[in-house]
Amino acid sequence: MAAPQKNRSVLLGRLPLPERNHLADALRTETVGGVLLLAAAVAALIWANTPIKDSYESISTFHLGPGALGLNLSVQHWAADGLLAVFFFVAGIELKRELVAGELRDPKAAILPVVAALCGMAIPAVVYTTVASSGGGSFQGWAVPTATDIAFALAVLAVIGTALPSALRAFLLTLAVVDDLFAILIIAVFFTSQLNFVALGFAVLGLAVFRLLLWKGVRGWYVYVPLAVVNWALMYNSGVHATIAGVAMGLMLRCHRHDGERVSPGEHIEHLVRPLSAGLAVPLFALFSAGVSLSGGALSDIFRRPETLGVVLGLVLGKAVGVFGGTWLAARFTRAELNPDLKWPDVLAVASLAGIGFTVSLLIGELAFGDDPVLSGEIKAAVLVGSLIAAVLASILLKLRDNKYKKLCAEEDRDEDQDGIPDIYEQDDPAYHLRMAAILEAKAAEHRRRAEVASGRTTGDDGPA
């Protein structure tokens, strides 16, 4: 009698075709958004380091909004507290979808990305704390290097043209979703100012109304958009960071499909809002947050000051070691395992990409050092430098694996029977094997015909021309 086999969950394995198509659409939008984010960051740096830098400061600090409602904010704050709520709303939908339809729906499969994300946040925090304590610096920025910017990471992949397998890209996206979840918790727990319980109570009530309307099946953007704005404003005035309202509303959307539905409401709304997030909200946040002075003295100070050095080392070293080490530990000591077609250098390359911590790292830096504008600017510069170094190192590793990636992608996309469905998804379909047998027989017949023609020409027989 054969010994029972352990059921291991293969993470980074072949995704179901609908999940793969959804992932491809999401990645295309994120990649375009990442390129726009990169362009906005470069524009901000140029603007803040040229003779017209005073105009950048004037626009960033210009206040507008109804003061009676506690919303007379600077342009920079509107970008960080308002526009990023859209980004976190999409992150909430992504998290909900991963929980009900993605890798996180299976606890055994979810172990690996969750452990990798946790280690990928804990180790950078330890690195920052160690560097800051050894140099007598502030511990306030411990959370700055813990975040991963998925849009920026995918933009790097698009720029260097690496053909990552879809499953490995799925791991990066899943890792970033879990990373976003814990970043949200960090913001909510550690960077919440003095609470206004009246505003918080009304915010909770507004979210309950939002959930009730969804449960009742009420439709119409003219209902939900004004309610979402009210919930955001109440959350902002409560002392809890306003982006938490976006996450909460995203998590409330239904992301599983009922019978007869082509897409769930969550997927539909994500499809509508994601371009707004990736193409407008995040680039504008980058434009008004990444504009820091990068003079020679400022750049050298990054590697001399303990807080900024801790951020750089946390992103470059801590993230890579944490994500890679967490993945290895989960694969070694749990039932999750890597796809046999993938190698650990692939995971190391993605772990290095996780060190690109742009958007959320800049936000946490502002929250941690908002009362010290000089140090806040230096922390932003450290985030930019650390993310750049991580991107360069990851690009080198990805280029070294380029041939492997291309081979895997070619195998995934192979469609011998030309029916529009990759063959790898049809290997268990009897009809597929019949079609493939017919194709192979036709190819063999063509090969025999060509051999006969060549033989006739060689012997001088009167064969076909």
TrEMBL record:
Entry's transmembrane regions: 31-48, 69-90, 110-131, 143-164, 170-190, 197-214, 276-299, 311-331, 347-369, 381-398
InterPro entries tied to this protein: Na/H_antiporter_dom_sf, NhaA
GO BP, sorted A to Z: regulation of pH
Catalytic activity: Na(+)(in) + 2 H(+)(out) = Na(+)(out) + 2 H(+)(in)
GO CC, one annotated term: plasma membrane
Major subcellular location class: membrane
Gene Ontology MF, one: sodium:proton antiporter activity
Cellular compartments annotated: Cell inner membrane; Cell membrane
Keywords of the record: Antiport, Cell membrane, Ion transport, Membrane, Sodium, Sodium transport, Transmembrane, Transmembrane helix, Transport
Bilayer topology annotation: Multi-pass membrane protein
Family under the similarity heading: Belongs to the NhaA Na(+)/H(+) (TC 2.A.33) antiporter family.
Function in brief: Na(+)/H(+) antiporter that extrudes sodium in exchange for external protons.
Protein name (database record): Na(+)/H(+) antiporter NhaA
Source organism of the structure: Streptomyces mobaraensis (strain ATCC 29032 / DSM 40847 / JCM 4168 / NBRC 13819 / NCIMB 11159 / IPCR 16-22)
Gene this chain is encoded by: nhaA
